[in-house]
Structures are given as structure tokens and as C-alpha cells.
Amino acid sequence: MSFYTSLNGLKNAQTDLGVISNNIANAETNGFKKSTVSFADIIAGSAFTNPKLLLGIGATVEAINQNFKQGAIEQTGNALDLVVNGDGFFTTKSAVTGDTLYTRNGAFEIDDSGYLLRGGNRLQVFPTDTTGAVTGNTPQSVQIPATNAAGAQFAGVAVSKNGVITASYADGTNTAVGMVALATFLSPGGLRQEGSSNWTATGLSGAATYGQPDSGFYGGILSGALERSNVDLSEEMVGLITAQRNFQANAKAIDTATQISQTIINLRT
């Protein structure tokens, strides 16, 4: 039994090493959230077993938990680089599949059709009038007109703390085109990682609840900056050493069990 107990330990240490390695690999990935492994012990026994004689038979991976602590903020000077300074996720929708994705990476850009997007996924906003007052509660893709009603050409864009996106035109006029819609979840740890700092909702996370930036518990929007990974390399290196030692200890336990078995087999009467 000791072989299988230590084998479980080896597998668990390998899982821990894999998670830590992924964290370290994404130390420079904007909007990335680190993960940690939780383990649970395994007990062999039945309802009729004396509780004083219950035998542990190793451990198993209970969960790989995501840590949504905010990462460091890096100033970029680009007006379309956005940070949620607090709780909430940007909501984006794939222009190809229509899938809804949630992200903390606010590195948006304007495409040739005027949509704000990141990686092909369009930013979702609340509709507003030209002054920035919200006119609806259903998020939609934001599209900046190439010209205003007077025919003036688009000149630039700005995003305020409360999430209002304002387009500027060559004739000096400004027009609000939407307000960033922020999403929160009852259990963000249940979100499914999709890569590229994107998540999708699951039954564990619950459905998204939308709100306006800088109101209630929703964070404000900081323009001209990006949220970096929340990985602490010093902490990960310590975890890496610990996982390595656990792997070595379980391997040594297997070696010891092998020597004991060999000694028993070599016994002579």
C-alpha cells in the first residue's frame, strides 16, 4: 500500500509543480491571475472500523483555485489601455462565434469598422445618449462613427473614470458612444479559463451581474494603464522549492518501500 500512497504523493507534487510553472510562465501576461493547488487527505476505512485504527492512504488534488487579487498597474499612456481599479471584469463578445468572454486585460484597440476590441473580441458597453447618460441596461458592442453628424472626421477617444467612452472629432465636438459594462460573479473562482486572459461563466461561477463603473462595489476605470499579472515571483520560487522537496520525499519513500520488500523477498529460512 505504501507504494500507491507515495505514488499519489508524486502525482500531487507533479500537479503542484505544473501549476507553479504556469504561474511563473505568465508573470508578464497582462490580466493573468495565478492559481494554487489545494490537497485533501484520503482515509481507508468503513463505518465499522475503529476510528483509532483508521489508516491514511495518501492525498489527492481537491481543487486548483484561482486568485483574483488585483495585479500591479503599469502606466502606458495609451487612452484605450484600460484598468478596472477594483472589482469587475470587462465583457467582450467574439465577432465570429458570438461567445461572451470576461477579462481583466484592457488592452483595447479600434478596428477599421470603429469597434473597440481585444484579440478579435468586441468590448461590451451600456448604450448612452450623446451626453453619456445611460439609456439601456443590455450590454452591446461599442462602435465609434468615423464622422459625426456634421461630417467632421474622428480625431480621438477618451474613457472617463465612470466608464463613459467619448469620441472627439476634428471640429472640436465630443460625443459619448457608450459606458463600459462591468461584470461581477457570485463565485469568480468558478470561472473557466479560456486562455489569453479570458474567462467564461459556468454553473459554478453563476451568471454575470452587470453594473456601472465607479458605483457600488464596481471599480472605476483607469485609462492609459494596464493591469499586470498578479504573480509574485519570489512567492512562486519558494513554492517551487517546496513542491520539489515533496516530490523528492515521496520518491525516497518509494525507494525505502522497495528496499523493505527486497529484504523480505531475500529472507531465508
TrEMBL record:
<dbReference type="InterPro" id="IPR001444">
    <property type="entry name" value="Flag_bb_rod_N"/>
</dbReference>
<comment type="function">
    <text>A flexible structure which links the flagellar filament to the drive apparatus in the basal body.</text>
</comment>
<keyword id="KW-0966">Cell projection</keyword>
<dbReference type="Pfam" id="PF06429">
    <property type="entry name" value="Flg_bbr_C"/>
</dbReference>
<dbReference type="InterPro" id="IPR020013">
    <property type="entry name" value="Flagellar_FlgE/F/G"/>
</dbReference>
<feature type="domain" description="Flagellar basal body rod protein N-terminal">
    <location>
        <begin position="3"/>
        <end position="33"/>
    </location>
</feature>
<dbReference type="InterPro" id="IPR010930">
    <property type="entry name" value="Flg_bb/hook_C_dom"/>
</dbReference>
<dbReference type="InterPro" id="IPR053967">
    <property type="entry name" value="LlgE_F_G-like_D1"/>
</dbReference>
<dbReference type="GO" id="GO:0071978">
    <property type="term" value="P:bacterial-type flagellum-dependent swarming motility"/>
</dbReference>
<dbReference type="GO" id="GO:0009424">
    <property type="term" value="C:bacterial-type flagellum hook"/>
</dbReference>
<feature type="domain" description="Flagellar basal-body/hook protein C-terminal">
    <location>
        <begin position="223"/>
        <end position="267"/>
    </location>
</feature>
<dbReference type="Pfam" id="PF22692">
    <property type="entry name" value="LlgE_F_G_D1"/>
</dbReference>
<dbReference type="InterPro" id="IPR019776">
    <property type="entry name" value="Flagellar_basal_body_rod_CS"/>
</dbReference>
<dbReference type="InterPro" id="IPR037925">
    <property type="entry name" value="FlgE/F/G-like"/>
</dbReference>
<dbReference type="GO" id="GO:0005829">
    <property type="term" value="C:cytosol"/>
</dbReference>
<protein>
    <recommendedName>
        <fullName>Flagellar hook protein FlgE</fullName>
    </recommendedName>
</protein>
<dbReference type="GO" id="GO:0009425">
    <property type="term" value="C:bacterial-type flagellum basal body"/>
</dbReference>
<keyword id="KW-0975">Bacterial flagellum</keyword>
<keyword id="KW-0282">Flagellum</keyword>
<comment type="similarity">
    <text>Belongs to the flagella basal body rod proteins family.</text>
</comment>
<feature type="domain" description="Flagellar hook protein FlgE/F/G-like D1">
    <location>
        <begin position="84"/>
        <end position="167"/>
    </location>
</feature>
<dbReference type="Pfam" id="PF00460">
    <property type="entry name" value="Flg_bb_rod"/>
</dbReference>
<keyword id="KW-0969">Cilium</keyword>
